[in-house]
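Hi everyone, sorry if this is the wrong subforum. Our group has a chain we'd like a structural model of before ordering constructs, and none of us has done structure prediction before. Sequence below.
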Amino acid sequence: MYEGFLTDVKGIRLGHAEDDLALTGTSVILCEDGFTAGVDVRGAGPGTRETDLLRAENLVQKVHGVFLTGGSAYGLDVGGGIMKFLEEKNVGFDVGVGVVPIVPGAVLFDLAVGDSKVRPDFKMGYEAAKNASEKDESMGNLGAGCGASVGKILGNDFAMKSGIGQSSVKVGDLVVSSIVALNAMGDIFDYEKGKRIAGVYDRKNKKFLDTCTLYEKSLNDYNQFSPANTTISLVATNAKLTKANCNKISQMAHDGYGRSINPVHTMNDGDTIFTLASDEVEADINLVGILAAKTISRSIANAIYSAKDSGGLVSYNSIK
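Answer:
Right subforum, don't worry. Here is the predicted structure as tokens:
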């Protein structure tokens, strides 16, 4: 396991809520004092909320929370519950007659695991926000990672369980941390150790199969491919960044996906990375981006190392 957690950046609170029977859930990152934010979407099948607000030229400069959730597009309902929680605390963008909490978010597709008729909703969003803590070290089968899986090109019989991963890196006073809800079609690698740790797994012969090779040999019709994917993440830092800077950091952070997931950013992924900055420490944007990619890659590995067998899917811990 790699060290560190998302909440190593001060001012952030992290909370989760999930349905362990239906195998779906949501994770909420709260920054009630307002953090500068950006986003970069690389997958071609995204499900997102309020991401246009994060474009550099648009009005709102701070967000008050971000959510990562299961449930595919149905899961966007959690945003209302999070807004309700924040409104009750008078947290949000002042519009004169009250406040409007700014809460972007993204979804992953977990409907093929567990009960597809149960999805994260308003109530679960409120619960996750209520559970948010300044020190959250939880990883594995919880929150948005409750129904997450990887290596899905041959279906659930060959897929593996993944989940939530966290990590952080520090250089002097600069802190860059991340959280990943890992839900990828592709194979997963521990980039720094140079080894595959999850993916398409042949249980009978106890060996990994190569997703890209299987794609080349088995899929003559693109429509045979399952849309049950999308890895969603958030980078947090105490660096002083503008909205444009945060968008750039999100772009650079996707290098962590490229190093650790193969293939990634496909037509049936909605791969998305948010960035939050507390604007406290002067830092070179290139260094922040380099560290963002590093911590994303580490959080991906931790999502595999911390997962447990669930929903008929085997995990790293049962095959290592």
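For your construct planning: DSSP finds six helices and 18 strands in the chain. Helices lie at 78-88, 122-130, 211-218, 243-260, 285-305, 316-319.
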